[in-house]
Amino acid sequence: MLSYRHAFHAGNHADVLKHLVLMQLLDYFNQKDKPYWAIDTHAGAGVYALDTGYAMQNAEYQTGIARLLARDDLPAALAAYVGLVRQLNPTAALRVYPGSPWIAQHLLREQDQLRLFELHPTDSQHLSANFADAGRRVKVQNIDGFAGLKANLPPAPRRGLVLIDPSYEEKQDYQRVPAALKDALKRFATGTYAVWYPLLQRHEAQHFVTALKNVQEKAWLNVSLTVHTPKADGFGMHGSGMFILNPPWTLRASLQAVMPYLVKVLGQDGGAGFVLEGA
Fold first, then answer.
1. Is 51 considered catalytic here?
2. Comparing C-alpha atoms, which of 234, 162, 168 is closest to residue 204?
3. DSSP, residue by residue, 47-62
4. Angle subtended at Cα 22 by Cα 16 and Cα 24, rounded to the nearest 5 degrees
5. Set 15, 112, 123, 165: catalytic member
């Protein structure tokens, strides 16, 4: 149950898409002075070393963030994302990759708060250590993220952004995520909810987006990036997506401008492409 470690995949194409969208959402929330909460249900370790440990085994970042760092023609949204990664890597070498919690903390303002949940005991310890000096604005808990979400809705300022990105190694996650969204909307109907999901050939994954669309008839946006043709043996992730409930009105146009570029730079064969749809 707790075998998954995001460090294996840090900085890969899925992280690029997830963190690009996350930054777009946070930037939009920051346009209003009113405070908000950012809630990360599966926060991981918060920051990941790329030159040691798990990340070195498959070096997935080399076909993700590393490809963007080598470019000098980045669209504005991607340039901002890459600039944030460079802040953790002041020298030319790419040694550290920021997880969603680090990105959120960097973009949140003094009046905003961050709630981080991580169930894996080791990753939770790393997360707590990485945010030990973050102050009272950041709260880290070693609990199940779905339970943590339920306990924190609605947020005190009645303004909030929720990121849900479990590993999906357990098939139950494909049912737990839609159920958590339905419950969350009852508690906090005006919140923005961003769900990351993998593109896999397993049955549950192929029907997952339909289940997400059924949570709420309108006010949703779905974007996915495929980086290569699915493998003949059926194994492996060939892309990923982000499904957003109550998205900012600016998000679709922003992604429309960026996704063709990501296909060109991160695509590995003729099967690369993207989907952008909404209601």
1. no
2. 168
3. EEESSSTTHHHH-GGG
4. 105
5. 165
